[in-house]
Amino acid sequence: MTPAAAPDAPLLQVGAITKTFGGFTALDNISVDIRKGERFGLIGPNGSGKTTLINCISGALRPQTGNVIFCGEDITQLPPHLRARRGIARSFQIPRPFKSMTVLENLMVGLDFAKVDSSLPEEDVAMSILTRMGLASKASAPTGTLSQVELRKMELARAMAVRPKLLISDEAMAGLSSSEVDEVLDLLISLGEEDITIIMIEHIMQAVMRFSERVMCLDAGKIIAIGAPAEVMGNKRVQEAYLGT
Amino acid sequence: MFSMDLLLGAVVLGVLLGCFYAAVSVGLSVSFGLLDVPHVAHPAFLVLASYGVYQLNESYDIDPLLAGLAITPLFFLFGLLAYRVYYETFERRGSDAGVRGIAFFFGIAFIIEVLIILQFGVDQRSVSATYIGKSWRFGEFRIPIRQLVAFAVALALTVLLAVYLSKTFMGRAIRAVAQDEEALRLMGANPVRIKQFAFGIATAVLGIAGALLIIVAPVEPTLDRAYIGRTFCVVVMAGLGSISGTLIAAIILGVAESIVLTLFGASWAPAISFAMLLGVLAVRPQGLLGR
Amino acid sequence: MKRRTFLGGAMAVAVLGQGSSALAQQPPIKIGMSMPQTGGLAGGGKASLLGIEIWRDDINAKGGLLGRKVELVVYDDKSSASETPAIYAKLVDVDKVDLLFAPYATVPTAPIMPFVKQRGLLLMGNFSFQVNSKVGHDMWFNNAPWGPADSWAASFLDLAQKAGGKNMALLTADQEFAQNLALTARDVAKKRNLPVVFDQVYPPNTVEFSSIIRALKAAKPDIVYVASYPPDSAGILRAVNEIGIGDDVKIFGGGMVGLQFAAVMSNLGSLLNGVVNYNTWLPEKSMYFDGTKEFFDKYTKRAVEAKVDPLGYYLAPFGYAMGQMIEAAVNSTKSLDQKGIAKYLRENEHKTIVGPIAFSADGERKETATLQAQFRGVKDKDIEQFRSPGKQVILFPEKLKTGDLISPFEAARK
Amino acid sequence: MTKHRNSIVFWAGAAVFLIAVLSMTQIVRNEYPFFAGYVILQFIALAVAWSILGGYAGYVNFGTNAFFGVGVYTAVALFKATGAPLVVQIAAAAVVGMTLGFGVGLLTLRMRGIFFSIATIALAIIIETFVMNWRFVGGAAGIQIQRPPVMAPFDSYVKMLFFVQALLVVIAVSIARYIQNSRIGRGLQALRDDELAAECTGVPTLKLKLVACMISGALISAAGAPAAMYLQYADPSSAFNLSYSVSALAMALIGGTAHWIGPVLGAILLGSTQQLLAVTISSEVNVLVLGIMLVLFVVGAPKGIIGLLRPRYRLRAGGKP
Predict the structure, then answer these.
(1) Whole-angstrom distance between the N-terminal and C-terminal Cα of chain A?
(2) Most exposed: B92, B182, D134, D296, by fewest CB within 10 Å?
(3) Residue B17 falls inside a structural domain
(4) Closest CA of chain D from C215, distance in Å
(5) What residues does the ABC transporter domain cover (chain A) (predicted)?
């Protein structure tokens, strides 16, 4: 039904979106295109609008102006669940598991509602995702018993259950030890190799450098730099923005 | 039936009634509006305060307003305790605090109702004071003095609380905790203690509000049900947590009720506050002065 | 015939001879009922029950009914209509009671009317209003003095018109009893070409009556007929006192529920003065019949312990009277046959502590004995004052009258 | 496999229950068990229906009495206007209850749960006021109703109502069970835990809440509809009595809402306790017991009786191991 996107058209086009809260402008006329299969890093100091931007992409917020185009379709007015079904999945800065469920059941929610046809029984699909994430042994554990890194992985696994084209990871490594950071990072990179486009918000610079093909830095709701990781890190305004906070 | 005099009278009485509604709602504006506690037992606490005032007035012949003032510290402690229980059992554990929190306060309201009935019976109770039963004449126009008293005290109470919340350190901390608990924690303040204190204040105010309630009209144990609609209507219409909004919204409700009662008949009156509440929820859930 | 009398006499002697041991041996006669003991009607329900219990104790002291002890089986119906069908089914099918009394008030009684009619059971009504008019059960007898439906409004309007009333204002609560009264008041006014200049229905839980009274005053009525419930009755009188009601008003009151209860009366005190209101029993000299004084002596003592209305004029003696009528019917028919008892009740006049009672075909009183009385010289905060005559002067009915109406209303208030 | 076997057990159980109820109406002559049993069955239906929204989705409906009263008065109005048979009355009540659920849901389910809860209190009072002003169904004074003749194979109307209410219980429980085992149930559970996370995982939260609200409303109204014929009388203050709300909520929460059996257990326990207490204690202590039990369970046993009985649910609920 949707018009077939041109083969080299970007997967996601953010077109001049502005989001204000009361008098405060969180996003100021942001435009960015993200290619299919790209590993995209999003950085910026606290309160620079990173989370607001991904909220606008995933549908938790709607911008006052501008539009969001995904696979050639304007999804600006769609609620989050319809975006999820079109292939946008995310994790949360502070993990938000379904607390009354086991890890496996958390994944089943995504499988149940994403409506992807599969010949395999849902539980098998869920188990294979968990195995991939190294959580197979925790499948029937309640989420309350998980450690911090397991929770982060569970969130990524739940996002994977939607079988996304675009995965947004919101500080999935915050508060983890360096070995755990590497663990999660490896997972994300391996997911990226499977044709999944990934936007990663992160504060840990080595991780961003290692992961990203392209990096964008936001400050006070504006894009101050975008380009190859090394290039962005070398940018004066980026350094100021980080030192300034 | 319609006459200018009657309309004017209705508006004047409505403003008086509205200020009284503000006084009974302002505590909820703090507890529900600022602290986000689903305090459906607020009107039950209010009626409980009225019975406290009644008991003091009946046994020791204390003026109801003084009696209200006297039970205020008690209600402050009661509020501290109630919040502590609520926090320990629901907020801290996080999971589905909403459902169980509401059910908890609903159960508490129900228990208070029954305890009042066990102690005082189902009959209505009223207090005696020199200003009850007299009226202030202005030509043909008469205003009951009890309503003037309620108006003045209610206005003072609301303004005082508004000033407290905007001018004092603690007041500002309470407002801050409503907006950004995390920031406050970073500043080294304990948000839970601040919230507990705020809930104490919100409950303490009910001492005076309860006195006004029983001054304006006799109370009976299930009176709280009628006030669930009124208080939540006022607080939601005001925009959660806005004290000045509370005053404006309460006056709008008071005038609306009074005009409908005087000019259009009373049979639809109980639905007024609830219909306004539904209307506000549907059209402008952030309230008149919402953030 | 003679033989039976002889046998009866012999049996009576035998029973007397055995004395109390016979009373213990025979199974008791069970009288079943529900009674509102919690909820909005509880105050009235408990007082009514105490009246019935005093009768039970009196009759048992006299040796019981037919030589058997009388036992009450009472359940709480929580003042709600939804509880009574199950309760009465239990009373009849499980407890197998011999006779049924109705609960106090209309709402809990209404759902059991079809049940008793279908089962052909006798039901002694307890202060419900027009509950049998649509059901048409011929074994229903109401202890209340209401009489024909329109007599209530008619007696008040008689007094009003005699005092020169030319038009009427109606202020009624939006609840069943008050609405029934309002309905008849409108009918009677229409028949007498009395214009209704103000007719307002207000909802339960109304807090503030100033607005309503102001609007009522603006309509300038001569007669103000109020049908209200306890919480509102007080609010209305307060507002009348504060806002004033105008010098035109000749008579005020009629159907205010609550002004019969001690707590409300002492609460309102001097605000009551001048109000003409309905009542059922008052300590006026015309109201004392055989046993009345003794009843109230017992009631006053037991009321303290039972935590019920200390005066108990409104309901309690009628609960006792209900028992007295059953006592007379059972003793005369010498059986518990419900058809026989019903026949006796319908055909005879019964002497009770609230005066003689005779029923018409629908089971209500043949003639109304609902009093209209005017409050006079009432002081604040004093329950005991209501025990002495003269505080509520009976204006109607003619037979029981103890004084004349003071009019206009403002004059009567002083 | 086990799911399939569970289904067989469930439907066999339901059939046995209905057959038992039916034969009871044919064998037992004493009418009291039917009067009392009707009340308990009614509470089971209400508690199960309530928990479809209140338990599975976590939206607390204080307006059980609004939906109940609407059911009663739909039946009354329909019966008075057309003399419609009981089945039609119940069906119509379900439709009206469903519509009402849709309306309230649309108005308030977008917002946080507390707004929905308060709106449902508002709803009860507005509708009660409306009915009080509606003279056709008797207004505030109430209305007496003459039952039509009873239908075979029943020999008394109360027995028939008892069977009908048992049927409604089976319908309510099967719907609750279906929802619980279907993806709707999983979606509701997810949104109950975290609405935003559920949305972002593809759960159409508003739609599911509306569906739950409509089904719950329809079932509550349907369970209320036969009350008109049971009482042969209807008045607004009894039909819209707040105690229906308190009972439905307390029974569901005390029984536990994670499984459909919870509200059933809660209703049987509290319903029979209430019937018993009504006979033994006639004071407000009776009602106090209900309130205190509600608070104790909400605070101390958040997963209700089934949480205490089956550790699995405790495990699922627990924040800590």
Answers:
(1) 48
(2) B182
(3) no
(4) 21
(5) 12-245
By the CB < 8 Å criterion, does A121 face chain D?
Answer: no
Summarised one tens digit per residue, pLDDT across range C206-237 is 767 888 898 899 899 999 999 998 778 888 99
| CATH dotted code for A38-49+79-244 | 3.40.50.300
User: Do the Cβ atoms of B15 and D91 come closer than 8 Å?
Assistant: no
Q: What is the pLDDT of residue C3?
A: 41
CATH hierarchy code of domain C151-285+370-413: 3.40.50.2300
- Give the helix ranges, DSSP H, for chain B: 4-28, 42-60, 64-86, 97-120, 145-167, 169-179, 181-186, 191-216, 224-238, 243-259, 269-283
What's the angle, vertex CA C299, arms to CA C344 and CA B125, rounded to 5?
115
Task: Quote the minimal CA–CA distance from B273 to chain A in Å.
Answer: 29
Q: Is the pLDDT of residue B61 over 60?
A: yes
**Number of domains present in the structure of chain B:** 1
Is residue D207 less than 8 Å (CB to CB) from chain B?
no
C371-375 and C70-76 beta bridge pairing: unpaired
D243 or A78: which leads in pLDDT = A78
- Is A29 in contact with A98 (CB distance < 8 Å)? no
Position B101 in a domain: yes
Q: What SS3 class is residue C391? A: coil
Burial label, C84 (beta-carbon count in 10 A; 0-12, 13-18, 19+)? buried
Cα gap C232→C384, rounded to integer Å: 24
- pLDDT mean for each 10 residues of chain D (321 residues): 81 95 92 91 96 92 94 96 94 97 88 82 86 85 87 90 97 96 92 91 94 97 95 90 89 91 93 76 74 88 84 42 30
Question: How far is the C-alpha of C384 from the C-alpha of C311, rounded, in Å?
Answer: 9
Place of tokens 């946080």: D112
CA distance D2 to chain A (A): 15
Report the CATH architecture of C2-147+287-347: 3-Layer(aba) Sandwich (3.40)
Name residue C279's beta-bridge partners: C371
Residues 105-164 of D with CB under 8 A from B: 107-108, 111-115, 117-119, 121-123, 125-126, 129-130, 132-133
D interface test, pick of A94, A105, A113 with most D CB neighbours within 10 Å: A113
Highest mean pLDDT among B27-31, B95-99, C4-8: B27-31
Q: Domains of chain C: which residue ranges?
A: 2-147+287-347, 151-285+370-413
Q: Say if B90 falls within a structural domain.
A: yes
User: Model pTM?
Assistant: 0.88
* C337, C72 Cβ separation under 8 angstroms: no
Task: Name the residue range of residue B129's domain.
Answer: 27-224
Which of C203, C156, C206, C143 is closest to C179 using CA atoms? C203
The complex's ipTM?
A: 0.85
Domain locations along chain A: 38-49+79-244
Q: Tokens for C11?
A: 């049996």
Burial of C8 (0-12, 13-18, 19+ CB in 10 A): exposed
* DSSP of C279-335: ES--SSGGG--TTHHHHHHHHHHHHHHHT--SS--SSHHHHHHHHHHHHHHHHHHTS
- Is residue B138 situated within a structural domain? yes
